[in-house]
Amino acid sequence: MIPTTDLNLSPVCEREVLRYMGIRGNATDVERALISAAAADVLPALTPRACYAVLDVATGGDVVNIGGRTVRSRSLARLLCGATRAVIFAATVGPSPDRAVRKFERLSPATALAADALGSERVEAACDALCATLCRDFGALGYKLTPRFSPGYGDLPLDFQRDVFDLLSPDRRIGVTLGAGLLMTPTKSVTAILGLLPATPANG
Amino acid sequence: MNFREYMGKGMILLDGAMGSRLQSAGLIPGEMPERWSLSHPDVIENIHREYIAAGANVVLTNTFGANPLRMEDGELCEVITAAVGCARRAVLASGREDVFVALDIGPCGRMLAPLGDLDFEAAVAAFSRVVTLGASAGCDLIFIETMGDVYEARAALLAVREACSLPVLVSCAFGADGRLFTGATPAVVATVLSSLGADMIGANCSVGPLEMVAVLSEMAKYSTVPLFAKPNAGMPSVRDGRTFYDVSAADFAAIAPSLVSAGACALGGCCGTDPTYIEALSQAVKKLDRPTPVSNNRTVISSYTTVCEIGRDPVLIGERINPTGKPRLKEALRTKDYGYLAAEAIGEEDAGAHVLDVNVGLPGTDEVELITHVVREIQGVTTLPLCIDTANHIAMEAALRLYNGKALINSVNGKRESLDSILPLAKKYGGVLICLTLDEQGIPPTAEGRFAIAEKIIAAAREHGIPESELVFDPLCLAVSADSGSGRELLRALEMFRAAGLKTSLGISNISFGLPERDAVNSTFFALALGAGLNAVIINPHSTRMMEVYHTFRALSGIDEGCRDYIAAATNGNLRACTSATAVDGKNAPAIGAKSDPVCENGTSTLAQAVKRGMRDRARELTRALLDSLPPLEIIDREIIPALNEVGVAYEKGTCYLPTLLLAAEAASSAFEVIKSVMTAAPTGRCTVILATVEGDVHDIGKNIVRLLLENYGFTVVDLGRDVPPDAILSAAREHSAPLVGLSALMTTTVPAMERTVALLHSKLPGVRVMVGGAVLTPEYAAAIGADFYSPDAMGAVRYAERVCDEPENR
Q1: Burial of B564 (0-12, 13-18, 19+ CB in 10 A)
Q2: Is B380 touching A (CB cutoff 8 A)?
Q3: Phi/psi of residue B542, each to 5°?
Q4: Residues B230/B147, Cβ–Cβ less than 8 Å
């Protein structure tokens, strides 16, 4: 398992931040000012980190066996069809978005909203950066990666998060813990599974 | 020989990794290594024997993850007892006198509140159980390790100190960025943990030996106890599904001299190391002398991310969180509006305070309960260290116990009662003491008299094991209008303390009591006091004059080399205090978020327009102007509510978005703040609404938006916060006779808690309506769990609340 602190995040995508704020279309000066105010608190203290493990995987009908853990999920089974190994990862951007939301929520909920949206955009960017690294590293070994799939997506039960945490120990490696309600802390954290497909002429 | 005796003798060798050794022995990912003490005790014992043979003086029991939050108590007891047994057998088999069994305690796997959902005392209780079991099983010392959060490290250390008297070593995991996961620097960790009674502190895991040298050097500057290092065997990489570390045993040991120069008195290895590493270290340290710890006599306090040293560079302590003379703050304390205090705190931080004084002493309130809530709230929104200001020693203890850092303790004085009640708290929880030079006879009129009291306090502190470096003396300002010599005498006192190498602080404003233009008197005296050696001052950071004195003094005294900070402050307009702050309550109000109103094309001549356009400052200005000619309720009904309604309708139609709605609500809120500050009686609110995010869920942005809008529309909102159990919601609904409860949940796993809450409310308080919201809900599901109303957005909640409120029985 590798804790990775050198994730190279792409620059903030304003459109994505707006989408998380519930806005379609372009930003006006109003939104830009909010995002800017939120960014002043969120970005300098952002700590993008990730860790991952490579595990054996087997699928049979709706049942998936991954790293010795079993889960029933048609959508996951479909995703991992053809893979004998899978990568399970946890990524976070750290506590700064949560702290910024807490700081702003009383007197400027609009800025808190922007901080929350910015945190969501950044953690997705962290996942993208990690997946790009994984694609490159595993591509060199002759694998193609499936899209990422998280507990709670499709019919993959949220409960599976407990297995992810047992297998990966993100609390030790990147400071992400699982609360009683299966909520991760810091909240801007993501766990996901990707299948490693042997690259054949059929799947390039 | 016990471990404490052994500690001072020479270099100590800790052991190496357990987890990776077990993986080599067949432990599969996801299997709990702690159970192997029961199923494979010989394997565990053998690993310990190998480390002892390699030279280790301390073996860590196989109990890293053993914690009540992960295991049932029965199993916990078995696992710990077995693990200590394995280690003890290995030690006995070695026949050596210089090997000790350390109970290994790792993080509990949950994050402490406010970031996470684990209550501080619950964490202490969990660690306490582990320590009790380990001590009865017969360990020689406690080893707390791989802590990624200084708050959790505090909880564990406090648990150990309260549960037993064994020596305790505490180690934190610093990432490649040199900080813990939750942001603490080595300086913070050293300051907080060495003042909380650890016998040794250090770093382990995350990085290899080379990266740890800098961490240890930094810790050495602030620690008052010996240090240790237990690095990984470099950085990991994965090949063919197996993890390899990139530093060999020889290279690992080659860095030992650097770690020892940096201050390490004990060395070991973490992930990726094995007995060969310990053997190599053992050879390396034979040639090295144990470093003599540099005696640190700095005076340092700390938050969870930032240290603050009280020394040559003056420290500004913001005084605004104090109910004296502040009606709005008194009201906030009485109504438990902690958010208001948090906003004050942020305002002081933005204005340049280095430390925040927190005083919540108000007749008719429970100071102990209040102070715990307020400290929690404020430390959740600022990274500045806090100065706990109370005369109630029970409140002081409660605050110091849960404070996430090392606080400034305001105050102890020369009276026997004060010394007996406060000094033990400082010793137990750590903290720098502000010492008032008064005693049973009062405040001595002369500098010599005050100095004599200081000497008495120093002696008493020494008896409690508190060194002079933890003391800051306040010679007390007396009003110069009452005694013309008081200013002069006070300056003489400051000079005496400076000459004796003692630190001083003052609450300046008392000097001008009874005089006109108090700010002018205060600021001149501030300059004089700084010249006489004053180290810390309690002031209003929004005061332009005081900040001018501060910045100019630093430049004139040479502390600010090249006048760089002064020039920056002067050119940024920071010398003139908050540029966008305006006066409410006669003092400056905080302005957070976007610093100034966005530029508007058409100008905003009416309050309604300012609200619609989300122009907070303009709304405040216009409200103040309108209050000269209109009664408050008319301003609310004619300007504010219609503007909100217009924005609300546009939002519902989709012609404007949530930020616009929020900004309008913020502008309306600031207009309401102005109105509240002039109204002597509270406006007759509409009915009360209870809001809460249900048990197990901590998402609350949506709920907070609903609260903001309901308040704007005149409802009295009691916001219970997040992760609220059904019983607490029921009692609040009863206590406030609320006809409506709003529940929010974001996760599928927490909707059952919502269902239980709805059922409880309907059965115990028939007639109370429950509305629900949250991304995970649908109208169908809401109906299925028995809710009376489902709203997809905040405006819907407001409309429903209005309907409920208008019903005859709820008026």
Answers
A1: exposed
A2: yes
A3: -85, -5
A4: no
User: What does the pLDDT look like over B646-695, one tens digit per residue?
Assistant: 888 888 888 888 888 888 888 988 888 888 777 655 555 678 999 999 98
CA-wise closest residue to B228 among B152, B158, B281, B275: B281
Task: Enter the DSSP assignment of B590.
Answer: P
User: Out of B590, B695, B748, whose CB is closest to A158?
Assistant: B748
Pick A183's closest partner by Cβ from B29, B106, B747: B747
Q: Determine contact: B415 vs chain A, CB below 8 A.
A: no
Contact with chain A for residue B611, Cβ under 8 A: no
Interface test with A, best of B657, B697, B699, B700 (most A CBs within 10 A): B657
* A53: chain B residues, CB-CB within 8 Å: 29
Q: Say if residues B696 and B750 touch (Cβ distance below 8 Å).
A: yes
User: From the list B110, B117, B592, which residue is nearest A104 (CB)?
Assistant: B592
CA distances from B580 to A101, B550, B596, B621, B720 (A): 21, 21, 6, 12, 32
> Nearest Cβ partner of B599 from A23, A29, A103?
A29
- For the record, the structure tokens of B611 come out as 């609200």
Which neighbouring-strand residues pair with A54? Answer: A87
Six token digits for residue B384: 């500045």
Strands B769-773 and B789-790: parallel
Distance between CA B745 and CA B771 in Å, rounded? 12
Alpha carbon distance B486, B480 (integer Å): 6
DSSP one-letter code for B527: H
Residue B237 Cα, gap to closest chain A Cα (Å): 6
Q: Judge whether B655 is closer than 8 Å to chain A, CB to CB.
A: no
pLDDT digits (tens, 9 = 90+) for B373-417: 999 999 989 999 999 999 999 999 999 999 999 999 999 999 999
Q: What's the rounded Cα separation, in Å, for the pair B506 and B490?
A: 10
Closest CA to B300 of B199, B186, B171: B186
Residue type, B448: E
Buried b vs exposed e over B615-627: b needs ≥16 C-beta within 10 Å? bbbbbbbbbbebb
Q: What is the ipTM of this complex?
A: 0.89
- Mutation choice for B interface testing from A116, A172, A188, A196 by most B CBs within 10 A: A172
How many C-alpha atoms does B626 have within 13 Å on its Cβ side? 25
